[in-house]
């Protein structure tokens, strides 16, 4: 357990980051709803929240109960994590007041196609998927990585179509993103 201090530091970073993101999302939700935005996906949102909460609990439990060690690939995994954070901040800044953890759509608003949205439709979900694998692997929590990757795939199979349907119904989403893939950039031939 020589790596407990790095784990606690890393865990606190992630926890603080999530709390700050929720505060930003709440502020943006108020602004959007004041502008006439409509919320979608309420029926599945709580599953998303629970998944993220249990991810953090599972990460701690597996690390501490099974005495998981820091991966020997930690420099590489940490690099991937920090690259993902750069893209996460890029996503939040690109969407500005439109960024949220909920599906909230302002009817007839211009669809954002800047930042990472120039390349893929859902960069935030891509980043979360990377984190759900990389963070547990960084600390040897293989069970957490496997379980929450599967849970995330299940939730995203519901959430992404719901978000896209809402955007298609209320904005020019289809026209804006006709040349984009959901999660990976198109390879130019």
Automatic annotation (TrEMBL):
It is a multi-pass membrane protein. It is found in: Membrane. InterPro entries: ICMT_MeTrfase (IPR007269), Metal_cation-efflux_comp (IPR052527). One of its GO terms (molecular function) is methyltransferase activity. The chain crosses the membrane at residues 6-24, 72-93, 125-151. Keywords: Membrane, Methyltransferase, Transferase, Transmembrane, Transmembrane helix. One of its GO terms (biological process) is methylation. This is Methyltransferase. It comes from Neobacillus ginsengisoli.
């Amino acid at each position: 357990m020589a790596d407990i201090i790095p784990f606690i530091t890393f865990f606190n970073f992630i926890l603080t980051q999530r709390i700050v993101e929720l505060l930003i999302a709440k502020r943006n939700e108020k602004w959007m709803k004041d502008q006439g935005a409509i919320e979608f996906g309420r029926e599945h949102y709580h599953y998303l929240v629970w998944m993220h909460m249990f991810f953090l609990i599972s990460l701690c439990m597996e690390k501490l109960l099974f005495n998981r060690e820091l991966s020997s690939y930690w420099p590489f995994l940490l690099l991937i994590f920090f690259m993902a954070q750069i893209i996460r901040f890029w996503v939040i800044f690109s969407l500005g007041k439109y960024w949220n953890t909920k599906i909230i759509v302002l009817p007839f608003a211009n669809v954002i196609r800047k930042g990472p949205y120039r390349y893929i439709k859902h960069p935030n979900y891509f980043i979360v998927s990377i984190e759900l694998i990389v963070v547990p692997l960084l600390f040897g929590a293989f069970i957490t990585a496997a379980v929450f990757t599967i849970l995330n795939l299940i939730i995203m199979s519901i959430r992404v179509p719901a978000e896209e349907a809402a955007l298609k119904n209320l904005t020019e989403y289809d026209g804006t993103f006709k040349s984009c893939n959901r999660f990976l950039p198109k390879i130019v031939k």
